[in-house]
Fold each of these.
Amino acid sequence: MKTIYAVIVGYGDRGRVYGQYALLHPETFQIVAVVDPLDMNRNKAKETFDLPEERCYRSVEELIRAGKIADCALNCTMDELHVSTTLPLLDAGYDVLLEKPVTSDPKQLFLLKERAEKNHCRLMICHVLRYAPFYQGIKRVLAEGKIGTVIAMEMSEHVGIQHVITAYIRGKWRSNARSGSSMLLAKSCHDLDLMCWLVGDSAPRAVVSFGKRTVFIPENAPKGSGNICTLDCPVEKDCMYSAKKMYLEHDTMGFLTWAGMDTYFEDVTEEQKEQHLRESDFGKCVYKLDGDLYDHQTVAVEFENGVTASMSLISNATYPGRRIHIIGTKGEISGFLENSIYTVRIFGADEMSYREEQFDVSEEIDSGHMGGDLRLVEDFVKTESGMPCSVSTTSIQDSINGHLCVYAADRSAQEQRVVYIKEYND
Ligand SMILES: NC(=O)c1ccc[n+]([C@@H]2O[C@H](COP(=O)([O-])OP(=O)(O)OC[C@H]3O[C@@H](n4cnc5c(N)ncnc54)[C@H](O)[C@@H]3O)[C@@H](O)[C@H]2O)c1
């Protein structure tokens, strides 16, 4: 396999995750440049990949002025920057591995697809869960026809309370108006992508959805509560969402909580943490922030071939995780991603009974997103080297249906009606 040279655009959390692959496999993948306007993150990449100063850029435009210096780019910028940073990369001839969600705007989604095709560039989307051995195994069972033809599918994700509060109530995804992403788009574009991928050859036809924000709203704030947990809240000690408890005492999701400070998140001092909780949104009362995301939403999709499928995204869970249950004409598959076990049941193998086989893929989990993170980069690198695409490969062409289901679901919940996918294709 030849060596593939890449630029990381946006060296934040995800940039660091994907960059690890280059450190582990320098013979096939090397990071030769970074683009990031933030000095701290640019310098971190410079140090990590031993980059010369002239290969550390502040903007994509600066990178492009230097000529084409790599085979591809890993675009790990935040949601609202995906389109504006990817278009110039494609125009400059870079293949791009782009973080999800692609965009919240259907027109921009189609524009990116067209631009990738026009420039003959690969544009692959980071649907890491397709690469988790759990979902790869389920896809294999379906392809082998073991459960016959798929009739229906149920999926759910229960998002843990600490994750929800840190990322979606206090964190950078807390508002659709700010980040450009609804909770369904940010969190479940993975699941709706998986749904379309697992259904296979048929496209989604119609979507209906209901959603609401019920928990973290001002009306539910404890009586007499203040605005900032560590400064002015008389009931802080009795509140289980106290920023003091979550971030000072338990250091919940430090890579999110302490990001965006002048110091690298792993190096922040206790004093800096306390100051951050006094001054940033991470210290604010969870009930009084300006978030606009639903905290529970259910989506039902009908596919052209008659398959019906549902996905429920439910926040504030005590026992988080993703569940799936697929029913086919000869049997079914069910499983819980977080314990890495799925079960296949074939009806009628014995008279009026079924045969059951359990698959445990826990030993294959060797990176984040239940093994999906680095398998995704490996697949991208292999495809860049000219090797055949894998069953999980997520080109922009292939990612469109899942994203359209998300747009349609959000529109359906808002307008209280069935939304037809053809509304986006006309
Ligand atoms: N695939 C997944 O499962 C998964 C998981 C988490 C996050 N994400 C997505 O990954 C993306 C990145 O998230 P993150 O948590 O790493 O964000 P982050 O804020 O940690 O990193 C973004 C980086 O981009 C840099 N940046 C800002 N403007 C830029 C520009 N114009 N050009 C280049 N760089 C720029 C920032 O300085 C920062 O270093 C988001 O879209 C997020 O939704 C995907």
Amino acid sequence: MRVNLKRYFLYLCRWQLSTPILAIALIWLSSLNKWVATIIANFIGGLIFFWVDRFVFTSKSLAAQWEVRDNIKCSDCGKIARGYRLVKTPNYDKTSDKAPKFRCEECSQKKAEELRKRGIIV
Ligand SMILES: [Zn+2]
């Protein structure tokens, strides 16, 4: 199984966001029975985090996987620099590219703009 680290990290951050919401709800509901208060707090959390989770798991903007490598020769300008290459999006897959092309930051931004216009990245 391949894990999209960006999604995974956002998901872990989202769990941290639920901490203060749960705490505030439990303080606010402290006069109630603990079980009832927890059920209501989780209900409030569910109302909010359904939308956050849906974004985390379905957002196309999080779907692009990039590979970063140091000291590459840019395939466009020839500069030796840190290099970037797009590996995978929902409609683009270069995971088994035998001769992957890396680009310097500047050229990779130009290339990304071109891919954005073609709808390969959003
Ligand atoms: Zn370049």
